[in-house]
Each structure stands twice: as structure tokens, then as C-alpha cells.
Amino acid sequence: MNEPLFGIENLDGYIVIGIVLFFSLLETFAGYLTATKRTFGDWIQEAGGFLVLSFIIKPFIVFIAFFLGKSLIPNVQNAVANLNLFLILLVYLLIDDVLQYWYHRFGHEYQFLWTLHRPHHQAEEMGFFVSYRNAGLYYLLMPNIWWVGIVIFLGGLKAVAIGLIAKQIIIIGSHSTVRWDESLYKYKSLNPLTFVLERIFITPAFHYAHHGKSMIDGISDPNGNYGNMFSIWDQLFGTAKFTRQFPTEIGLVNDPKDNWTASYFYPLIKSDKPESEIARGFQKEKTVKAEPTICEFKESEKYLYCRCGRSKNQPFCDGSHHGTKFKPLFCEAKRTGKAKLCNCKLTKSPPFCDNSHKEF
Ligand code: FES
After folding, report:
1. I want to staple 321 with a disulfide (CB 3.0 to 4.6 A). Which of 25, 52, 308, 351 is the partner?
2. Ligand 1 centroid to residue 126 C-alpha, Å
3. Is 188 helix (H, G, I), strand (E, B) or coil?
């Protein structure tokens, strides 16, 4: 049976709106509104994205899932309604979260999905509303919203309602400027608790690292820390980075600052900036070449070596790897002097040339 939570119609929706209001008040008191450099377009994408997702896209997907379920498999409607609520909640959340992990990861590794997820990373400040900043189509294709529709059809409305509340607290909390975990890191005695906590749930430090502009700071990893609610998937699939620190620069390297209409409505509306990845006819060219570059470094100098072969600033990373499975290699010069860096990307000892370009 699809009974409302605690017998109150739409209680989960009210609680989610309550969580959003709670974080908005916290951020306001913490000086977020006065300190923000957000443009009108940023606000529209973030607050508008939240409203469209909550009141149009999610209800639409749940309606379609119900319609398809009733038409194609009517016998299984409410099939799990009498099972243990905790069991349904656990299964719902784990499947939801692993789906979101892979969808998010594919959003970074495949060019088309990247163009839809890219607005999320164009935010140059964190804040709870950043959670809702993606192209509209990104949400329409999001497998775990469809999963919500399926679970409700199967009779798991209560589990979805409770799960949605728990998810919102973690997700909004990990994007918020109110970094609730920061105080935990100050006390050594809390270390065991913090260790367990961050290895299960996504903390602000863990997620901020994903929004950091570049790996060069030693904290950020925009091509890692993909988790949504649980950090277990990142640990399982080798993409976790725990530093307990917060990057100072958030956003994208070489962001062309697209108009919000193109960011939100892509591919229906394209960017008018020719250098943008969402401009008409834009293509990432391969920039590999069969000759190394001699570079001069100072001892301890840090740099990011391009491994994707698309940077316009070879042999260094310029952020063009987004939308591919590659990420740059973080390097630190051991001594002052010259080094021969590989440009063909065939070297077996990156970043250095090992003459593999002769096979090029
Ligand atoms: S541009 Fe970053 S790895 Fe190639």
C-alpha cells in the first residue's frame, strides 16, 4: 500500500523543503548572501533548477514510471508493500546511490553527459543550491529518479519518502557553505568517529574536493569523489580521495562562462561562445605529437601533466580531459633543471619521454 509517511499527505515533500529552508537560513546567517558573487544566471540555474526538478521533472518521471508499470506489469504493483520497511529502505538507498555514482561518473567520462553535467562544475562558489545545478536533460535521464518511480510503483513510497529526506540532508549538507565536518577535524579524540563517518557518508570536505578547480592544489580531485550519499562506492571503485581539507578555488579551468540558457537547455540551445564545449560544431581535437618538449622546472615545482592528449597547452593539462576517462598526472619536480616531457602519450614512464614516440 502506498500510505503517506506517518499518515500525513506529502510530509516528505514538506520535510525536504524544510531542509532547504534550514540550510538557506544557516548560509544566510553565515554571510553567504552578502558575500556571494553569483550572477543572475547562477541564481536562475540553481534556484530555478531546484523548482523545475522538484515540481516538474520528478513528478513527470514518477507519473511515466507508474503509467508504464500499470500498462506492462500490473501484477507487480505494490509487490513489496508488506515487506519490512527497513529492508526496503536499505535496498532502495543502496541501489539509488550506486546508480547515482555511475551516472555521475559517466557524466565526467563521456562527452555528451559531461555537457549536461558541466553546469554543476561551473559554479565558482559552493552552496546548497549548487546541488540542483545541471542541465534539465541531465535530470530527465537520471536513472535514480526513474528508480524512485519504480520503487513507488512497487509499493515502497514510505521508504522513498524517508530515503529522500536522509539523502537531502547529506547531499545539501555536502554542498553547503556551512561545513559541518570542519569542527570534527580539529579534535584528535574524535578521529576514530570521523574516520568511520567519512568512510560511510559524503562529507563536505570529500565533496568540495570534487568541485575544486584543479588537482594542482593537492586537495582537489574533480575526476574523483563521485559519491552522492555514501562514500563506499568511491572506495570500492578506486576514486576516493580523503584529505579533510577544502580547496580554495571552485569551478572549471578555462570556463567560457556560457549564458545560463545554453547551460540549462543544452542541446536545444547552444552557447554563443565559440570556445565553449557546448557551442555549435565544437570538437575536442587530439593535440598529441611525436616529439617531446623540453621543460624547465624549479625544485618542488608542481605541475599537471596531460594524459588525455587533448590539451592545447601540451604537455600540461588545460582541463580539456573533462568528458573523457582520463585525468592529469600530478607531478612535482625533484630538482631544478630541464626535463623532457612526453607528448605522444605512449611513454611507459609518464611524464617523461622514453622515446616511445619513435613507434608513433
Ligand atoms: S587536458 Fe587534462 S589530462 Fe589532458
Report:
1. 308
2. 24
3. helix
Name the residue of 284, 310, 343 to mutate for ligand 1: max ligand atoms within 8 A of Cβ: 310
**79 contact partners, CB below 8 Å, separation of at least 6:** 154, 155
Which residues, other chains included, contact 225 with Cβ-Cβ below 8 Å and sequence gap of 6+?
Answer: 206, 207, 209, 210, 231, 234, 239, 240, 241
Taking only the tens place, the pLDDT of each residue in 222-236 is: 999 999 999 999 999
Q: Are 328 and 341 in contact (CB under 8 A)?
A: no
Which phi and psi angles does 323 have, rounded to 5°? 90, 10
Give 330 Cα–ligand 1 centroid separation in angstroms: 11
> What's this model's pTM, rounded to 2 decimal places?
0.92
Ligand 1 atom nearest to CA at 309: 4
pLDDT tens digits along 89-104: 999 999 999 999 999 9
The answer to whether the CB of 328 falls within 8 A of the CB of 302 is no
User: Grid cell 570556463 — which residue?
Assistant: 255
Averages of pLDDT over runs of 10 residues in the chain (360 residues) are 62 68 70 78 91 92 93 95 94 97 98 97 91 95 95 92 89 90 94 96 98 96 97 98 96 94 97 95 92 96 97 96 96 96 95 87
- Distance between Cα 285 and ligand 1 center (Å): 12
Question: How far apart are the CA of 320 and the centre of ligand 1, in A?
Answer: 5
DSSP-assigned states of every residue in 36-102: ----HHHHIIIIIHHHHIIIIIHHHHHHHHHHHHHHH-GGGTTTTTTS-HHHHHHHHHHHHHHHHHH
- Distance between CA atoms of 78 and 89, rounded to whole angstroms? 15
**Residue of minimum CA distance from atom 2 in ligand 1:** 317
Distance CA(132)–CA(112), nearest Å, equals 19
